[in-house]
Structures are given as structure tokens and as C-alpha cells.
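Researcher: I'm preparing a figure for a lab meeting and need a structural model of a single chain. I don't have an experimental structure, so a prediction will have to do for now. The sequence is pasted below. Please return the structure as C-alpha cells so I can convert it later.
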Amino acid sequence: MPPKALAYKRRANPTQILSLIYGALLTASVRSGLGKHRAAIDPSKVSDTLKLYTLAIPFGVIVLALSTLAIAIVLNGLIAPTKRHSCILFFPPILQIVLGTVGITMVFSQCKPTSTLWNSQLGAKCWDKSLILGYVYFMSVYVAFVDIFLAVVPLVAFWKLGFKPKTNIVLCLVVSAMIL
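Model: Understood. Here is the structure written out cell by cell.
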């Protein structure tokens, strides 16, 4: 029997559970027709396809934001920064969570009633699509910025540790792989 310190019970964390829900909803929407031209989808399945995809959006946004925050937590532990550096490290991922929440709210409040998102026959009034698209583009750029930021921060810290250049390069490559 292994010592108690080595006995580790693996439990699913919230990000894994949300990822599974996101994947299941996306898979169901693809099987229902997502990715095909609307004319190629069975008309009786268009509404279900759009509904499943719309319901998947919040899970995808939350998973991405929580994963980014997890990377910041790991980096905070690795480079042991000052309180000021910790604040700088955590600000972009926390802002990503806030902006993602705004985006989710925008998606579900853009049409009244919300079911118009997957049933256009209701004829409800919706916001201009350019507003939502603009926000999606902004979020895409911001998420890319946060990924680059979280890849560059440890590079600077590792360079300052005084390791041999070869060791610094290997550490930088390993940590930079996070951006992928």
C-alpha cells in the first residue's frame, strides 16, 4: 500500500466538467447540422442546431477564461512575484472573465425573446449584428493578448534567475508552449 502522501484520488475539476458539457453541446449541434450551409440542413433541425450552439457558447467562454486563470495561478507559484507583480499577473485573466461574462450576457440579451436566436420565425427585434460581431472580434484580440502576456511574463522572470543560457532557452521554450 502506498504512503498516504502518494495516494492521490483524481477528481474532475470544474473546468473539465464545463469542457465536457461544452464538447457535448457542440458535438450535438454538429450532428444536427452545424458547419453545413443552412440550405443543406434539414429544415426541421435548423432550430435545434442553433439552439445547441447558442447554449454551448457560455460554457466555451467560461472554460477558456478559467483555463487562463489557472495558468496565471501556476505562473504565480513558479515565479513567486511580489504582491504588485501578482496583481499585474492576475489582472488580465480576471478582466477576461469579466469581459467574457459581458459577452455571454450580450449573446442572450440581444433578442427579445431569447428563443429568437434559434427560431427566426418569431420575428422579434434584435440588436444590430455588427455590435455582437465587434465584441467577438474585440474578445478574440484580448484573449490572444492575454495568452501572449502569460507566455512572455515567465520568460522575463526566468532570464533574471541567472541560469545558464541553455537552461534559460529550454525553460523559455517549455513555458512558451502554453501559447499554442
